[in-house]
From TrEMBL:
Domain Trimeric autotransporter adhesin YadA-like C-terminal membrane anchor: 542-602
Record GO cellular component, one term: cell surface
Name of the featured protein: Trimeric autotransporter adhesin
Keyword annotations of the record: Cell outer membrane, Membrane, Protein transport, Signal, Transmembrane, Transmembrane beta strand, Transport
Domain of life from the UniProt record: Bacteria
Domain Trimeric autotransporter adhesin YadA-like stalk: 44-73, 113-143, 187-218, 350-383, 421-455, 479-516
Amino acid sequence: TTGGTVINTAGFTNGASTLGATGLTIAGGPSVTTAGINAGNQVIANVAAGVATTDAVNLGQLQAIGAVADNSVQYDDAAKTRTTLAGVASTDGGVTGGTTIGNLHQGELSATSTEAVNGAQLFATNQQVAANTGAIAGNTTAITNLGNSIASGTIGPVQQSGTANRLALVAPGSTGASPGALQTLGNLAAGTAATDAVNVSQLRGVQGQFAGVIGGTVNPDGTYTGPTYTTAGGTTATTVQGAFDNYNTAITNAAATANRGFDITTARTGTGTVTGTAVANVAPGTRQTITAGNNISISQSGTDLTIATNPNLVADSLTTGGTVINAAGLTIAGGPSLTTTGINAGGKTVTNVAAGSIAAGSTDAVNGSQLAATNSSISALTTIVGGSTIGAVQRPGTGDRLNLVAAGASGAAPGAAQTLANVAAGLLAAGSTEAVNGGQLAATNLALATLGQSAVQYDDATRTGVTLNSGGSPVALRNVAAGTLATDAVNVGQLGSGLASTLAAANEYTDVRINAVNFDLQTYKRDANAGTAGALASAALPQAFEPGKSLVAGGVGTYRGQAAFAVGVSRIFDDGHTILKAGVNRDTRGNSGANAGIGYQF
């Protein structure tokens, strides 16, 4: 530690800047961590124009979008249900005032079209209305006859099949007795009564419940195919009890292995030293003590041990190539900087920018994808094309699909979901295309509930936990395979092996660190002893004592196994008062020294 700078195993701290395991943080300023970039309410300057969808955008790009938006036709509010054109408000139905939409392309004329039409199309419609007036009267009889046919079930997409109380979905050009290709009955509401038809989402919900509880498959004919459980060693079982029996065997074997304990010994690498290399067995239940030597720190938290040295690195700044970290922050030569004054992108593109909050008062940066969405919303158009027919069951267009249609709606826009009631029980068999009713589905749900009582299930709908025999006695989970991923369960054998490896690694690391410290102390001690010998050799040099005379002298010194020699020269000037003396020395550690002095005697 020096001044406000600290470098240790926890990270690098200089003033308000901290560089740690999760990134760089500046107190009261920006931060760059694994959670993202927080500008700390500072300006991000010199940002290049974003290109990719996740790039940050600069003010110039936003202002360009704003200029386009000011001259565009926009919705009245966020609900996007109404657009009011600018201009003088009209009070006479548009005879005067209002805004004219010119050069309008002809809109699509269909039952579901929502496109605007122009004056020419409206004029043609008026002409056609006059011509159609006479034809409408002639169609009345034909419509009446068609209604009678629909009521008797001899025409339309749903007809009597010829069998009592049985209807058939009919392909175009076919009859109830010979309905043709299979048809899809769409827009079917979820059945609630016992004889109501059920839709696909209800059936899929049942299949999902089966798979979520114990796996397996619900077959088209309503039967159930159970799953196969594969346990450790590739052993399979077709019942839950069989799977647990396999696990019980594995756990029993693992317990027998754990009861043997583990062996412990010492070893060395590099310059490490050990005392005692005998192999000793550590029986289960015995306690081993790990003792911290000099400069070693051991901290315990429950069953976890942390072994470390106590180094303190001192530095005013940290420089790697063109990157400098100091009290002001992080600076990269020719690139971005992150300091207490803000974030400077250095003319570079800021990529992989998370979507910022788009709201009043938001100071988040936005990315190119958000800007693209803004551009799209300015010019978005929606086109809906469909067909229509008559009756409670209609075909939305071409293809083998039928919709149940609400009152006043059409096949392409059927309105609210409809309930199809009084549905006879459909055939539950492979290849059956008949609709099933709520009573059949209730029987399937009952079978699922009965089966789920003995299955292993998640604790709740979040699927984040499984409790075996919740509320009862603990359950042994046996035959557990050795885990390989970070979230896999481990067995007793892996736990014993991991503890032995951790202890061996801790001993090896401790030995290396202690030997390194001991070597450094011995080096410093020898250098200090040699320096003392040099000082003694220089002190042994004699000095001239007569005016006008000079003296060349030599001297030696020794101290605790180290030695040194010195040579020097001295002179007393003719005035007998001024004395000059200088010398050099060399010790057995290869170090040299020098001294000089001048005096005046009186």
